[in-house]
Design a protein that fits this description.
By secondary structure, the protein is an alpha+beta fold. The chain has three helices and seven strands, in the order βαβββαβαββ. The protein binds coenzyme A.
Length: 147
């Protein structure tokens, strides 16, 4: 049910969930087209229900030499609470660990989603901050040994 997809295939879902009413170009994220970036899609037959993207990006607040940033985690409203988000997160962790067991995964979490990530062992660090035109976020991460 989970497949690796192209950056382009994520844009409509990102737009519906994360940037409703905003132009599609606001759904193109930095790093989307890099060779080591991983885009995952959760499908029911041909219907794309959720997406998540993993970009190789270091955040200077962490020492780990091998880091990835999770971006664009989005499940369409009608398919929520069916473990699609969980599956996209766990599959991403699995792929990244295979690349490098020492990987640290971090991201800017929407405040409304913090408790979702906490269920999977992610911790917040630092203060919350506003991403203009989007909403309040806070950095979350999981140590390599916990991944
Ligand atoms: C957050 C999101 C990805 C979760 O996806 P989902 O498929 O609905 O979540 P799951 O069904 O996998 O949920 C797994 C568990 O997390 C819980 N959960 C889901 N969303 C939650 C939330 N926003 N806050 C707290 N808990 C949440 C579920 O109740 C479930 O708990 P359980 O194990 O006790 O039954 C999805 O709601 C979404 O796309 N939201 C809008 C966009 C967004 O906020 N994205 C994150 C950007 S950082």
């Amino acid at each position: 049910m989970i497949q690796q997809i192209s950056a382009e295939e994520t844009y409509r879902t990102r737009q519906q969930v994360l940037r409703p009413g905003r132009p599609l170009r606001e759904c193109f994220f930095e790093g989307d087209l890099e060779a080591e970036t991983i885009h995952l899609g959760y499908f029911d037959e041909d219907n794309l229900m959720g997406v998540a993207t993993y970009v190789p990006r270091k955040n200077g607040i962490f020492d780990a030499p091998f880091q990835y940033q999770l971006r664009g985690m989005a499940v369409l409203p009608e398919f929520r609470k069916k473990r699609i988000g969980e599956n996209l997160l766990l599959e991403g962790e699995k792929i990244l660990k295979q690349k490098n067991p020492g990987v640290l995964l971090w991201f800017n979490a929407r405040e409304v989603a913090v408790d979702f990530y906490k269920k999977y062992g992610y911790k917040t660090i630092g203060s919350s901050f506003m991403i203009p035109n989007v909403c309040v976020h806070i950095v979350m991460y999981k140590n390599p040994t916990d991944l």
